[in-house]
Specification:
alpha+beta, single chain, seven-stranded mixed sheet
């Protein structure tokens, strides 16, 4: 019986372990370390919003009274962690009379199960990457394009646009980048930044490379100009890192969407402590209720359950993620326009 075979070959923990051991296929944003991963035992998180800014303190005479602490004005937001379920199955049709490419041996049940798990993992990876990008734009969206949270509205901040004016040959691109950094730093509240990263559409990158002021800058700053990583272009202008980001994926209805629109980039401060978080909540399962997920969540945090079909007809699997990609200070985000 398949039931006996399945029970002795795989269990829930093993399936979850398998799917999380697969390498993340789509993860540029996560690889850049923008979001700090956290795990919680609840499906809702409380976000305390404070206007408590860091303040420079003056030197005083020894024994003089100190500068009083500015009292905080706090409010709270409660956000539900999005639940992202994904189903899969393996039936006799997926195994019977099938051979793996390049070999004569017939398909095994183990191989068919692992192929299905890997396919489910890829779909979760691309979905989570899309959600991370959307959070960096200030609006967390799901795979169908629905806005789950508008962080500008949630935290009472205003979306900012910045035009590089790359269609003007007289534009000084270095001055523009310095201005962009200043705007971002001035928007930081109670946090710090170490740099500025701008995932950008290919055409925005192309306009930078062709611009007269960049060509001049490249001659004067050859160590900071341009390099290639994993077949895409990264441009450093005055410490602002423009990285080509040419990702797209189909929605369930077949519509293919680009993660970053043509002629745009999104400036994001790096090295922050509290601005960005990726919160991994408990799976929808009795064994996981009120339990924080194992690990840090850096592996994608996918939880797999399975159920045998009646009449020895196969196995049904559910791979779920429960993740909130959070930007607590959307005012630091800037939509960058090429022209």
């Amino acid at each position: 019986m398949f039931e006996e075979y399945f029970d002795t070959t795989f269990d829930q923990q093993e399936l979850t372990g398998f799917v999380n051991q697969f390498p993340i296929m789509y993860g540029l944003v996560r690889a850049r370390g923008i979001f700090a991963s956290r795990t919680v035992p609840t499906t809702e998180v409380r976000i305390d919003v404070s206007n408590n800014r860091m303040t420079l303190l003056p030197v005083g005479e020894r024994g003089a009274p100190g500068v009083p602490v500015r009292k905080r004005s706090d409010t709270a937001r409660y956000l539900t962690i999005p639940h992202i379920p994904h189903g899969g199955s393996v039936t006799p049709e997926d195994v019977q009379d099938r051979r793996r490419p390049g070999v004569e041996e017939l398909e095994s049940v183990e191989d068919a199960l692992l192929d299905e798990l890997q396919s489910m993992r890829r779909n979760h990876d691309i979905t989570q990457e899309m959600m991370l990008v959307s959070a960096l734009k200030g609006q967390l969206m799901d795979g169908d394009g629905n806005v789950l949270y508008d962080y500008f509205q949630e935290f009472g901040q205003t979306k900012r646009e910045f035009n590089l004016q790359l269609d003007d040959a007289n534009t000084d691109i270095l001055d523009k980048c310095r201005e962009l950094k200043r705007l971002t730093r001035n928007a930081m509240v109670g946090d710090t930044m170490t740099g500025l990263w701008v995932p950008s559409s290919p055409d925005l990158i192309a306009m930078i490379l062709k611009h007269p002021s960049f060509k001049e800058y490249k001659v004067n700053q050859p160590s900071s100009a341009t390099f290639i990583e994993e077949e895409h272009t990264i441009v450093n202008v005055g410490g602002v890192i423009f990285e080509e980001y040419d990702a797209s994926a189909p929605r369930a209805n077949g519509q293919v969407v680009s993660f970053i629109d043509d002629g745009k980039g999104h400036a994001v401060p790096t090295g922050t402590m509290n601005t960005f978080a990726e919160i991994n909540g408990p799976a929808y399962a009795m064994s996981q209720a009120n339990r924080a997920p194992d690990g840090t969540g850096d592996d994608g945090g996918i939880y797999v359950t399975s159920d045998l079909l009646k009449h020895d007809a196969g196995v049904e699997m559910k791979a779920q993620a429960n993740r909130l990609m959070l930007c607590q200070q959307p005012g630091v985000l800037t939509e960058v326009l090429a022209a």
